[in-house]
Specification:
The structure holds two protein chains of two kinds. By secondary structure, chain A is of the alpha+beta class. Chain A has four helices and nine strands. The mean pLDDT of chain A is 93. By secondary structure, chain B is of the alpha+beta class. Chain B is globular, with a radius of gyration of 21 Å. The model of chain B has no long low-confidence stretch (mean pLDDT 97). Classes of the chains: A alpha+beta, B alpha+beta.
């Protein structure tokens, strides 16, 4: 069973987001990293880029394929996880501990329609 | 109506092992068991076993078997000793590739062809149709044979100890037949990984037994995922990517297998002309500076425009470099030429290199 944390929100496209004030930390879930297999590259946005909820902000590359990352929030990228440039496999080791980007959100209410842990767990079971 | 996938004789074993299954060439095949990286490394460092029963086998027998094989095969099998194996292609009149294949010489009147799974129907129809007028028979033996490939530095020791087959003296690109329980089993020192290894062909029950013995001995099962990463690293082509009905062996940079001094073969004129005039485009290797991953279909650019396309690309498991095989226009095929690959919205710089990204470790 994949790890699912209770205090964050989930998109059905398998990204997670933790909102603290107006800063949202975004990553992919344990379920996603397991499904992808060994991650060989994380294509991250640049600090200062604008991201839009529901649109792709980068990609995660496994051995065989690239998977788009969809942003669960809109706003400006204020930080990216540079450790992933040299060690993309960190996401496999700890998907919740190795976030991908931090966004200064333009509209905090955007997370209202995201899933809580229990609902996300249900999707993973399907 | 959905076309039903064919199952190999080892299918239920893959499912029991929890393999990730996926359609390939009309077959339901295992892509990975433990993970592509682990399986790839097992083959490079020790030994791994692949179910390759999906491959096709065609036997050509008769007084004109040699004459007919020479007619459809671009390589030259003349004067070969019994037991030798040749790699090459069958081509159309216009030089485009029907398939790449192995030709096993059984004797002057019998040849055993091993063809790609995805092309079995097309190849069998092609081989049967062109045999008209030649005194030989063409038999599709694909359903009869199961096949496994045991590959890696410990492959020889594994086949000897676990399977009890005496194979250590089989030279590279040679085969031997064994009679086991009244049935013929073929073992060749061939493979698609760049490592020493053997391919074992036999009736289904025998191959099932072979697989079970190897699993019991703890040999890593390997799927099509690492089969592709392994062959790619050592510069081997895959029909459908680096060869096709519109890509000639010369464009694929495989002209060493096209023996133009043969008196005739299908496609000879077109290929001779292409070699003499020079190709307009060619398959080469590209090494990117960074670690972004190039993939099949991604554009290759230089001087502000697209000059080619990636045919196969990976972050090489054995070298850690992001590398690709690509079809590019001349003169961008020259070694060292700076090029870029467009990955999603950005371009990434690299240069043209040889398409053998990792050195082969054959036992020659």
């Amino acid at each position: 069973m994949s790890k699912i944390l209770d205090d964050i929100r989930y998109a059905d496209s398998h990204e997670w987001v933790k909102l603290e004030g107006d800063i949202a930390t975004v990553g992919i879930t344990d379920y996603a990293q397991h499904a992808l297999g060994d991650i060989v590259y994380v294509d991250m946005p640049e600090v200062g880029d604008e991201v839009t909820k529901g649109e792709d902000f980068g990609a995660v590359e496994s051995v065989k394929a690239a998977s788009d990352l969809l942003s669960p929030v809109s706003g400006e990228v204020v930080e990216i996880n540079e450790a992933l440039e040299d060690e993309p496999g960190l996401v496999n080791q700890d998907a919740f501990g190795n976030w991908i980007m931090k966004v200064k959100v333009s509209d905090p209410s955007e997370i209202d329609d995201l899933l809580y842990a229990a609902a996300y767990a249900k999707i993973c079971e399907e | 109506m959905e076309e039903k996938l064919v199952k190999t004789c080892l299918h239920d074993r893959h499912v029991k092992l929890g393999a990730l299954m996926s359609p390939f060439g009309g077959f339901d095949m295992p892509i990975q068991y433990k993970g592509i990286t682990e399986e790839h490394n097992a083959v490079r460092q020790e030994v791994g076993v692949f179910d390759v029963s999906h491959m096709g086998e065609v036997r050509i027998k008769g007084p004109e078997a040699y004459k007919y094989v020479s007619h459809i095969f671009v390589n030259d099998v003349t004067g070969a000793p019994d037991g030798q194996i040749f790699y090459g292609m069958m081509c159309y009149e216009n030089g485009g590739t029907v398939d790449d294949l192995l030709v096993y010489k059984v004797n002057d009147e019998e040849y055993f062809l091993v063809i790609n799974a995805a092309n079995i129907d097309k190849d069998v129809e092609w081989i049967k149709r062109n045999a008209e007028g030649f005194n030989c028979e063409v038999v599709d033996e694909s359903p009869k044979y199961g096949e496994v490939a045991i590959q890696g530095p410990k492959a020889e020791e594994t086949v000897e100890k676990v399977l009890g087959l005496s194979v250590k003296d089989i030279p590279f690109y040679n085969f031997q037949t064994f009679e086991i329980d009244g049935e013929e089993v073929i073992v060749s020192r061939t493979g698609y990984t760049g490592e020493d290894g053997f391919e074992v062909y036999g009736p289904h029950a025998y191959i099932q037994n072979v697989w079970d013995k190897l699993m019991e001995a703890g040999v890593q099962p390997c799927g099509l995922g690492c089969r592709d990463t392994l062959r790619f690293e050592v510069g081997l082509p895959l029909y459908g990517d680096e060869l096709s009905d519109t890509i000639t062996p010369i464009e694929a940079s495989l002209s060493m297998f096209v023996k133009l001094d043969k008196p005739e073969f299908i496609g000879k004129e077109a290929l001779a002309k292409q070699k003499a005039e020079g190709v307009k485009r060619r398959i080469i290797g590209i090494e990117l500076e960074g670690t972004a991953v190039p993939r099949h279909g991604y554009p290759v650019e230089a001087d502000g425009r697209q000059i080619g396309e990636v045919t196969t690309g990976y972050k090489s498991i054995s070298t850690g470099k992001s590398v690709a095989m690509a079809m590019v226009e001349k003169p961008y095929d020259k070694l060292g030429t700076p090029v870029e690959i467009r990955i999603r919205k950005k371009t990434f710089p690299g240069k043209v290199v040889k398409k053998r990204f990792y050195e082969k470790n054959y036992k020659k």
